[in-house]
């Protein structure tokens, strides 16, 4: 069965509404249209399409008002009318020949009384709903109960409500402990009272019930049906099954919905199979409070908005972030660092630090106490020191954690070259142009050159990332580019200190501070750290576009830095510690014409070679080395061709180079292998 409003009806209602005219429908038509079905009803939405099939016309018997927007038209076909079949009913405006609606049904016989055979009486009603229907039709009589099939209307409303519930709750939802199955005794099981929705049907179990599960294993199902009872009341019936059954129609054509609620194994153990209220948050579980500690409610949009407004006013001090158990004060002359165990930042700007007070060096700086057994000292010299307390004493002493750091352009000097003799390092100049470093060995007075040609610019020890340990005498000791050796800190005192960053996102730290992260699991890239799971310390200091961050990992090896960009965002982290991972040194004496060795595992390109004359037996000649005059009787040459050694002395027998010979000598050599990572 199908029914449709016609386009003419819609146009007619719109026109009469605009013109304040009266809407009139005054006749029913009955027709028998061959091959009519619900799919082709759209072909018969005008009177001209139906006229040839009309079997009966009859005026509207009764019209009544249901509500302001609904009116009903009825016709009664008495037993004196017949005999004919019909499968189409239409409501029309007779004078305008306008079809309002078309109703398709299965073929129905209309029989009249005749020859002692009782005919049938048929009543048909059409309910029309449109805006302001009561006023437009000028119908003021209330509809009679016989005119409306209230059962059909109520059933339609119930179905609409069921579908709405289905959209909200899904296939099924059980609230709290409702319909929870528990064992009572033997094969008797309790089912808790409660409320559930199954396929949109609301099922309310007012009190607990029992079920006998005799054949284990089995499952428990709830079967619900919503229908009209014999008294006219609508209710939901609930029954419980121990046998699987899909949704079905009963003999009265009532729709049943079946949902599993529990499994029971052969030992009587229960597995809860109810679908709980994960998709639905009742109003009682919502809260707009911003100071609640409840774990049973969820925040509303209002609560989230209030917290967001609070967060917008970001703190600029430690106290603003709730860090109150952190000391900040200046160190005094009486302070012994062994006695300072309270977490905090202690500033020293008065040169009070001496080794007697257990400072790591005689230089002012900042003491960072991470715990009662862990201290870090940031020296004004750029050195960083750390120590731990073991069994209530500081016996292990201070250890440098900056990789023996002296900063220069291009990276950190980290590896160490240990010599047993004093070195003098001097910068060579030609005019105002700086050349390579020359290293003078002070005890023997021989010069170690980087290459045969002094004017050729070479790589210095410091440029190669080496620190020379020994007694250093500095002549014009700088980096050769107008910059002196840099320190890690140029000023101390305006920094905030954070002892424990905890789970804080360091992208938020856009003010000068020094901070510690003692736990590996808190150092995460999604919180702004450069590497995962590496505890360490963070320094934030002013830079070109705001601030610069330097992160030094606890394992002493990794240093990362990044800067704010012009738009205030953080740029990428860049690693800036030394790339040198191995250094090998060879020394010795070789004969003229020999080839210098290289350390095992190193290539020639990874090595630097230095030689000086070792032996030339000056006693063979009576001439003094520092001769004066137009000619020389004594010369030396000591240089490398690749790795081949030239070490010779000229002994002259006459003036100049006319008479004499070259005597082969020996050369000292120093080979330094440097392997980068």
Protein model, in words:
The structure is a single chain. This protein has 677 residues and is mainly beta. The chain has a six-stranded mixed sheet with strand order 22-23-24-25-26-27, with no helix packed on it. Strands 36-37-38-39-40-41 form a six-stranded mixed sheet, with no helix packed on it. Strands 1-7-6-2-3 form a five-stranded antiparallel sheet. A hairpin with a 2-residue loop joins β38 (536-543) and β39 (546-553). Mean pLDDT is 78; it is low at 405-494 and 621-626.
Averaged pLDDT, please? 78
Record the strand order, biggest sheet.
22-23-24-25-26-27
Please mark out the parts with pLDDT under 50 across 5 or more consecutive residues, or reply none. 405-494, 621-626
Task: Report the structural category.
Answer: mainly beta
Specify the helix fraction band.
under 10%
Number of domains: 6
Hey, roughly how much beta strand do the residues contain? 35-45%
Rg over CA atoms: 51 Å
Q: How many helical elements?
A: 5
Instruction: State the separation between the terminal residues, measured CA to CA.
Output: 84 Å
* Number of separate strands: 47
State the major sheet.
6 strands, mixed
What is the overall shape? elongated
Domain Phage tail fibre protein N-terminal: 3-157
Protein name: Tail fiber protein
Pfam families: Phage_tail_fib
């Amino acid at each position: 069965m199908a029914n449709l409003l016609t386009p003419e009806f819609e146009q007619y209602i719109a026109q009469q509404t605009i013109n304040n005219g009266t809407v009139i429908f005054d006749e029913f038509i009955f027709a028998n249209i061959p091959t009519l079905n619900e799919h082709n009803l759209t072909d018969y939405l005008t009177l001209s399409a139906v006229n040839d099939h009309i079997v009966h016309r009859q005026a509207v018997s009764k019209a009544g008002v249901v509500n302001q927007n609904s009116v009903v038209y009825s016709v009664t076909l008495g037993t004196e009318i017949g005999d004919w079949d019909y499968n189409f009913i239409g409501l029309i405006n007779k004078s305008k020949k306008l079809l309002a609606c078309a109703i398709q049904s299965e073929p129905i016989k209309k029989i009249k009384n005749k020859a002692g055979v009782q005919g049938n009486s048929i009543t048909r009603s059409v309910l029309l709903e449109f805006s302001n229907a009561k006023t437009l039709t000028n119908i003021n009589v209330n509809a009679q109960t016989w005119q409306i099939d209230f059962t059909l209307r109520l059933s339609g409303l119930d179905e609409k409500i069921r579908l709405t519930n289905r959209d909200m709750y899904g296939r099924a939802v059980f609230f709290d402990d409702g319909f929870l199955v528990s064992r009572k005794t033997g094969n008797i099981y309790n089912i808790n009272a409660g409320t559930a929705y199954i396929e949109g049907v609301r099922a309310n179990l007012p009190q607990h019930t029992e079920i006998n599960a005799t054949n284990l294993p089995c499952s428990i199902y709830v079967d619900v049906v919503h229908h009209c009872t014999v008294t006219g009341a609508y209710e939901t019936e609930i029954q419980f099954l121990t046998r699987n059954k899909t949704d079905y129609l009963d003999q009265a054509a009532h729709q049943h919905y079946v949902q599993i609620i529990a499994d029971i194994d052969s030992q009587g153990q229960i597995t809860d199979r109810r679908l709980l209220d994960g998709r639905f948050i009742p109003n009682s579980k919502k809260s707009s409070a911003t100071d609640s500690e409840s774990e049973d409610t969820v925040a509303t949009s209002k609560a989230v908005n209030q917290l967001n407004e609070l967060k917008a006013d970001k703190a600029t001090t430690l106290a603003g972030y709730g860090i109150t158990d952190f000391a900040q004060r200046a160190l005094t002359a009486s302070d012994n660092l062994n006695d300072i165990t309270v977490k905090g930042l202690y500033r020293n700007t008065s040169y009070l630090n001496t080794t007697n007070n257990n400072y790591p060096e005689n230089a002012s700086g900042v003491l960072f106490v991470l715990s009662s057994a862990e201290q870090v000292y940031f020296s004004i010299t750029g050195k960083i020191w750390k120590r731990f307390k073991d069994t209530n004493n500081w016996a292990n002493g201070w250890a440098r954690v900056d990789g023996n750091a002296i900063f220069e352009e291009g990276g950190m000097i980290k590896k160490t070259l240990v010599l047993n003799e004093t070195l003098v390092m001097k910068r060579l100049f030609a005019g105002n142009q700086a050349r390579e470093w020359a290293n003078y060995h002070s005890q023997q007075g021989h010069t170690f050159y980087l290459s045969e040609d002094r004017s050729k610019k070479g790589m210095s020890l410091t440029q190669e990332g080496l620190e020379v340990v020994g007694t250093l005498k500095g002549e014009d000791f700088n980096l050769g580019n107008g910059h002196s050796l840099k320190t890690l800190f140029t000023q101390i005192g305006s920094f905030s200190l954070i002892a424990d960053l905890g789970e804080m996102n360091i992208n938020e730290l856009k003010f000068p501070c020094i901070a510690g992260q003692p736990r590996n699991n808190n150092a995460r890239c999604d919180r702004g750290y450069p590497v995962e799971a590496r505890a360490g310390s963070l320094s934030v200091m002013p830079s070109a576009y705001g601030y610069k961050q330097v992160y030094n990992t606890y394992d002493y090896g990794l240093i990362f830095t990044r800067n704010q960009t012009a738009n205030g965002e953080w740029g990428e982290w860049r690693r800036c510690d030394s790339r040198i991972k191995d250094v090998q040194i060879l020394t010795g004496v070789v004969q003229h014409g020999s080839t210098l060795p290289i350390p095992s595992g190193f290539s020639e390109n990874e090595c630097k070679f230095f030689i000086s004359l070792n032996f030339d037996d000056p006693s063979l000649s009576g001439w003094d080395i520092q001769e004066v005059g137009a000619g020389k009787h004594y010369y030396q040459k000591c240089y490398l061709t690749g790795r081949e050694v030239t070490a010779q002395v000229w002994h002259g027998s006459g003036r100049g180079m006319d008479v004499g010979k070259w005597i082969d000598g020996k050369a000292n050599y120093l080979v330094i292998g440097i392997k980068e990572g």
